Amino acid sequence: MTTKQNIEKVLxxxxxxxxxxxxxxxxxxxxxxxxxxxxxxxxxxxTREKYVKQYKGDEQRVARAMSRERFVxxxxxxxTYLYNxxxxxxxxxxxxVALAAIENNNSAKLxxxxxxxxxxxxxxxxxxxxxxxxxxxxxxxxxDLDLRPSQLSSAxxxxxxxxxxxxxxxxxxxxxxxxxxxxxxxxxxVAKLVQPKENDRIYDGTCGSGxxxxxxxxxxxxxxxxxxxxxxxxxxxxxCRMNMFLHGVDDAVIWQGDTIANPGNIENDKLMKFQCIVAxxxxxxxxWDSGFxxxxxxSDKKAKMTPDMDPYRRFDWGxxxxxxxxxxxxxxxxxxxxxxTGRMGIVLPHGxxxxxxxxxxxxxxxxxxxxxxxAVIGLPANLFYGAGIPACILIFRKNRGSNDKVLFxxxxxxxxxxxxxNQNILRDQxxxxxxxxxxxxxxxxxxxxxxxxxxxATLEEIKNNDYNLNIPRYVDTFEEEELIDINKVQDNIKYxxxxxxxxxxxxxxxxxxxGL
Length: 516
Fold this sequence. Notes:
- By secondary structure, this protein is α/β, with parallel strands linked by helices.
- 45% of the residues lie in helices and 10% in strands.
- It is built from 21 helices and eleven strands.
- The strands form two sheets. The chain has a nine-stranded mixed sheet, with helices on both faces. Strands 4-5 form a two-stranded antiparallel sheet.
- β4 and β5 (270-271) form a beta hairpin.
- α1 runs antiparallel to α8 (128-142), α2 packs parallel to α13 (234-246) and α11 packs parallel to α19 (428-443).
- The longest helix is centred in the N-terminal third of the chain and has 31 residues, at 24-54.
């Protein structure tokens, strides 16, 4: 049987074919694409063998059965074909042709997923001799990896290994890598807090490699939900599409482009509405409004974003500062949230809780006028790759009715996470405690919070704090120090001084004996 560890070992060994030659933020695309091709090849081959046996070699019936499978694969697109041609002087171009054929033959599910990758790139691989050596090694790294479904130890093993690799690249590449990956436990926490339900539409407009969406998808046992996402970076968009396919989500709709300036979630000239939104947008994105300002964005520093520039009127509540796009994403998501049952979990930097000026006014409008804010959850510092600052999760709900309370949770203290070498980690029990606290708040009207961990604040209390949501204003984590017995301290000092005098006297005698 092929285990997750077997796959991870092959993937990590494949990195050695590239280390020192290509930056890790680039070679991840080649390795993950090859894993994808190897998986498609093995699945297709085993499925075909099953039909050959079932139909006793009747090729016509086998071909008809194969045409109804999840995907189509020509022999010249298979990993086997590429491996057999690994010594070809044009192996880079052969791989490109194979990938293009996979896209064309499965355009409904895999259109353009390889568009941003070029196995024949002289920029990445250098001269043909060096390029061919790297690609030959890569093909040999994957040769003995058996990814046939009958040999896999679990149904999710490929998707899980894919997530493992993405996480490791995020760790290796630092901030640049972390942009497309939200730590698994944080994704799980957000998904559990918003509780996706059967027939929901789940959306993430800054979906990266799709981890948050998939965590939401797996919260629904029947899997009867629709997945929607958008990602600006073309390579990360491709990772997301492949990730969805590997997890069996064939009907996911993932748009490519700038979510703020060019949202893909348009239906009848209006923003589509979603019952469930999960998101981790880039923290404090600079020049988030450049898509509206066009050529004036850089040439004219006086150019300003105005509400009427947005055809969907998402910024009528206020315009966030150009240098910090956090509330631009918040407002986009709130305008995309279903008015009846919509709920949203979004990961943001702590600055959104207390920064003033335009952000303060937007925050006040969301709370005071619309009553959308349901919970504020502070996370431990250093959970995210390349970003040591602590983050928070804001939970918003449409149609809160007469609820005039907001839950505050401070999960950042000692004992609420595991300290790691490079990143801190949320454990299962940490996630469970936050989820249970939120559940108590939602279900128990008398719940007031837990000492030094959570607090249920009224809107009046928030108003009295000038709509500042800084968590220490609501959750008191102060630990009183033990009272000091001054008399005991003075006695200790006298004892130490007496002992010190003895030592000094003894030392003087030793010095005298030595003639010093």
